[in-house]
TrEMBL record:
This is Uncharacterized protein. PANTHER family: BILIVERDIN REDUCTASE A. It comes from the Bacteria. Residues 3-118 form the Gfo/Idh/MocA-like oxidoreductase N-terminal domain. One of its GO terms (molecular function) is nucleotide binding.
Amino acid sequence: MLKAGVLGAGHLGKIHLRLLEQSEKYELVGFYDASEEQANAIVKEFGYKLFNSAEALIESVDMVDIVTPTFAHFETAKQAIKAGKHVFIEKPITNTVDEAEELIKLAAEYKVKGQVGHVERFNPAYTAVVDKIENPMFIEAHRLAEFNPRGTDVPVVLDLMIHDIDAILNVVHSDVKQISASGVSVISETPDIANARIEFENGCVANLTASRISLKNMRKARFFQRDAYISVDFYEKKCEVVKMKDAPEEPDDFAMILQNAEGIKKQIYFDNPDIAANNAILDELNTFAEAIQHNTDPIVTLTHGKKALEVALQVINCF
């Protein structure tokens, strides 16, 4: 088992602590949080070992789980990597692309693994269909959330939209050509609602909307490709795959047939996969442990995290 420690014990940090304790891949050694009051409250409630400094924690573990505010990601990850420790970093990877690139170089230099917490890659609705998404040419994503003061220190693009940016970059195998976007600050000092149109070199277009001031939660993405439509509901953990094939000469009475203006007939059929229930955060942590143990690439590498951040910052720069 890998010895693991958590840096940052806020809302998400507490979840990571609980799941690392449950995991069969890790031995949870303890945690450190800069807030003495918050740290002591966690010790009192859960009994986890509290370290008196980040340095002391890093020295005691094999893997450092960084769940601090984003502004602290770079320095803490840099410190851990230079100590020869593997790092799991919550999204976004860092504040700047330059910082992300430096972490990538350091991880290679010190021969350690790094993974970024883009948890939607482990959403069972997404994993059930990701292999069926082939050369999508139009993508539409909506990620809407009710207002929560937590997270409003960063624009909604880095808080919410970056999830969809990463999921889309994972299936569109092409460079970004052009981005146009708009964002509006309604309650916070940074944009609370944003829309982005991302055009890729291969002709694919992705239209993304993110809001943290909606009346209901929604996390949906739709992928359109030749002869197929694929829908992923990240929130409800449901998916739908609608495919088309050339219609047989004598279709059965219940077949769904479409005919286009050229007279070509297509049959519509559903290819909905089974969705296995899971805990996505536990899965991302466990697969990282497997990557470390087997010396393979993590599912979401530091480079993936850098690319998602790069696009997210390009979106923000359009405002």
